[in-house]
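Exercise 7 asks you to align residues with tokens for two separate proteins.
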Amino acid sequence: MADLTENICAMVDKQLIEDILKNDYGFINGKIRELDGYDDKNYHITEIEKHIEGIEFPVDGIVLKFINSIDSKNLSLLEAQTKLTQYLENFGIICPTPLLNKYRQSYGSVIINDKMHAVRAYRYIRGETMNNVIVNSEISTDFGSYVGHLTSILKEFNHDGFHRNDFLWALEKSPEVLKYVDVFNQEKQQIITTILNKFQSTVLSKSHNFTKSVIHGDLNMNNIILKDKKIHGIIDIGDVIYSFTIFDFSVSLCYLILHEFRNNNAKLSDVKIKSFVDAYENHYEKLNSLEYSVIHVSDYAP
């Protein structure tokens, strides 16, 4: 299990970014904009002045990703992520695909504060995140269809690199939060403890009955890219893991509900749950009685 007190993020400055762009990719003097991230650092690079290594610069730019020091040690994971993007691309799924550096490699590495960080350049996917739109029945249906379709594709893919039992962000690791619950006030401690104990007793205790496959792991609204109000692609494959197939459905539904409840006056009846579920089942398979029985608890855990 990872040490939660360890700083695993790369400490990055503009000069380091420019050096990597020039030395590994031959890109000179691009515009740099930092993007959101948790354990990884991400920078959108656009409008380079020139390229000197013969590597074509994508029209929409690239994302230069500095991977956290823990995942950077896992070479099998890095390989799995590369293979997965190639696999998804073959099925027409728009996702961040690596841009090979001048050494014909999908990633390089850099030492920062005595820690090794893998560095990748991904093709930037232009569009609007689902977090920035009002989710009506049409978008909810599209979301359910997309999650179902993605699930059916991922179910046929496997790689040892995604079998990471110590990955803290996996949904089945949610009860680990109980070790740190004392940082919250008493009311929140009670809520968190109740939910996670319920998750353990209702979901994890029955997990041997659930199908497992490779899942995206974080299908939240900021990782879904839309164009013209239609889902165009997904980003952020950093949480992909071999886990319980139902969890991608549960996480997606959870974020669909949370998205609606950004409005303080929202009601659960405002969430387009039925259109999402129906579309998911039409593009993947019908949920069985056991899966239906644990959805409400699984949706609380993320």
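Second protein for Exercise 7:
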Amino acid sequence: MTVLEVTGLAKRYGDVLALTDLTVNVAEGACLVLLGRNGAGKTTALRCMAGVLTPTAGSVRVDGIDAAAEPAAVRERVGLMPELPGLYERMSARTYLDYFGSIYDLPAQIRTRRIESLLELFELSDAADRWLGSYSKGMRQKVALIRATLHRPRLILADEPTSALDPDSARRAWMYLKDLQKDGCALVICTHSMEEAENLSGEIGIMSAGRALAVGDLSELRRKSGLQTRRELRELPTLQDIYLAIVGNHRDQHERELAESRSA
């Protein structure tokens, strides 16, 4: 089943054509990664898909609903995670997320259960009652991800979702997004990271100057590039593997010591 249908999408700001003739489809449980330099049109495309911006031309449909005709109905089905979180700095994380959960019309018990579970997953439970203004960039990005997915949307639109996260937190974020994908959620991810784009199974759209130059899976894009396929030996583990192992071992040791001190 197709969740997102984008046809001939274009957006003009005065004399600037930020996006032109974008056509993509994303099925239930599928992922589309948009790659491109700053100003390529990725963020404009996401905002049009979310029903936040009205396109100059073309159409966006989410679950068959036209975003221009029924933007509120589309926003109910979409979780938008912008690159800049835009949090309410004089609210605590727990209060802030509860507020957005109520906007999504989630029953109190359900939103409390989800909020506590996600705060624990992203290691924010101990800081959940602090003002968001005191949070680091990485902590803010985690809260933005929780906010965007709290209502279990049909479509998640995420702009650089792990740009401020350390490797361990980024791994948790991708695992969480992939779990939502397995449950049928469609994903559209904007990133500058080629490694992230390769690791996210699905289609990749390469954008430049507001146009999608090529869209397809990695094997299709290899053929379209005209480059010869070659294999290179790579020494493993990578630095990221090493970092995650050392941090994980330290955390396990710390938890064992805590358990021993409690039982003593």
